[in-house]
Amino acid sequence: MRDLIAVIRKKKLNWLLLAIPVALVLELTHAEPLWVFIASAITLIPLAGLIGDSTEALAAYTGPKVGGLLNATLGNAAELIITLVAIRAGLLELVKASITGSILGNLLLVMGFSMTMGGLKHGVQTFDRRQAGNHTIMLMLVVVALVIPSLFSHSIGPDTSVQVEALSLGVAGVMIVLYGLGIVFSLKMTQSPITYLPSGAHKAEMSRAAALGLLAAATVGVVFMSEFLVGAVESVKTSLGLSEFFLGIILIPIIGNVAEHLVAVQVAMRNHMDLSIEIAISSSLQIALFVAPLLVFVSLLLGHPLTLVFNQFELLALMAAVLVAALVASDGESNWLEGAALLAVYLILGIGFFLLP
What we know:
Blueprint: H1 2-10, H2 19-28, H3 33-62, H4 64-74, H5 77-88, H6 92-122, E1 125-126, H7 129-156, H8 162-188, H9 208-231, H10 233-240, H11 244-269, H12 273-301, H13 312-329, E2 333-334, H14 336-355
Antiparallel strand pairs: 1-2
């Protein structure tokens, strides 16, 4: 128990867990939905981080290869739970926007902050050019897979038609198979674009039982806070004048991934740009190859079929993000100016998304 408490107290973000009782009281007393949304969003940040901490701790007992597999499976658990709750509530546009937003956030926001902070501290940083190139090629292939249903659907039929749903299911099935092949590849190779070894996975900071208990408790917490968050979305849209699209593409991905984003920035500041870039790209691939296809299949069980049909703004943003990230990573070097450029692209897209009706 002591080691569990020590791990929780180790990170400053975990003090935000004190907002959990606040969120519960606000929800139970039917307070203003905006405050419920804010409180639940604050609590989701450390809860997502605790899922990552427990995964790292378990990786210390499983070895590096299985640890990477474990991270690939649970690395985006918080965001997966949030989107599942949103699907059950019928907020399909929010879900599709969050898929796009997660990829954009990792490639532009996370890589941008990592390169900026690492460059300011260490100047020009280097990383494995060949490995980064392999990762970005995989990203380009994934974007093609996401673009095809959107382009073909205009000629096949309405987005809600059986034909378009069948196309989305077929593409989702192929992507999950590709993800499975990536897992097999990662078990045979020390480096894989699908999985990465968490930075602290070699240290057992808590017992196996404590790690499992923390994982279970954090997951349950994410489920409840996600219910509160999604339940307040409609009222927040009205009170703040924000679109469901903006909430999904900017706010939800940031809330669900802050802890992992901070890890990428921290390792960049320690001059480990290889790991920082790997975290950002692997997380993007996990969202595209695992989370998005899984949501397509699970949405059928929840009675709200989700298709992989994205609007033109999402497609343009995805293609731009992958292209810019590939160009930045092509020379195997990074500096703070390149990081600032990535952040600028993300900010420009964010302004555009904010002004969309």
